[in-house]
Amino acid sequence: MTTVTEKREAFRRLHESGCFVLPNPWDLGSALHLQSLGFKALASTSSGFALTLGRPDYGIGRDELLDHLRSLAEAIDLPFNADFEGGFAVEPEGVAANVRLAVETGVAGLSIEDRVVGGDPGLLDLGLAVERMRAARAAIDQDASGVILVGRCEGYLVGQPDLAATIARLEAYAEAGAHCLYAPGPRTGEEIAAIVKALAPLPINVLLREPGPTVAELANLGVRRVSTGGALAFAAWRAFTAAAKALAD
Predict the structure, then answer these.
(1) Per-residue pLDDT tens for 120-176?
(2) Which in 36, 142, 149, 163 has the greatest CB count within 10 A?
(3) Do the strands 180-182 and 204-207 form a parallel or antiparallel pair, or are they unpaired?
(4) 223 forms bridges with which residues in the sheet?
């Protein structure tokens, strides 16, 4: 069995050059199956995990997610990146405390996003979002865990598809200590290339979507990580629904 330290070292090496696909399993079975297919790393999906519990995205609690992350990290030999939503707290101190708990599960990376949870869709004040990122990085560095911190800007997903504003936020999160940057939503090669150029040499994660560039095209644009979000979970659910409806009919 690969140790946590070995997984984290391998994950850091993946971020140094090239491009790798980071598919998102939604439970233990899907994680083990993806591992058997030869991927180099995996990442959780909060929406996919919520689906297994019959809940909407952002409908799971911190402790439920921590148990989920721990079970996946312990069962697979691959580095594992956690979708840790917004850190399950608003204030930086709460984010830091929860990030420390996430690090203890054995993950090799985790993301912190900047959307407002509850109420009208939107983004947190930039100053607060930066302080949250800085607190998350300090929590990771506290025990020299080597966990990769991913700074996420959710603008495109909350109805604010402003490329310049998105890049500005990602730059601020990089300055606050994020090792990798991620803005799910942009689909055109021009937008993605602009993000890669602005944040270079830091690695950029892109969410694979249709229509949009292929994995090979994203690699040519300089993207380092390509993830799927909840797409695999929802594809499985659609197939299950179609089969169940055919059976019911």
Answers:
(1) 899 999 999 999 999 999 999 999 999 999 999 999 999 999 999 999 999 999 999
(2) 149
(3) parallel
(4) none
List the CATH code of the domain at 4-248: 3.20.20.60
237 residue type, one letter = W
- Residue 123 to residues 93, 114, 117, 126, 226, Cα–Cα distance (Å): 19, 6, 9, 8, 23
Rounded Cα gap, residues 148 and 160, in angstroms: 27
Question: What's the Rg (C-alpha) of the chain?
Answer: 17
Length of the chain: 249
Which residues, given as ranges, of the chain have pLDDT below 70?
none
DSSP annotation of 125 reads: -
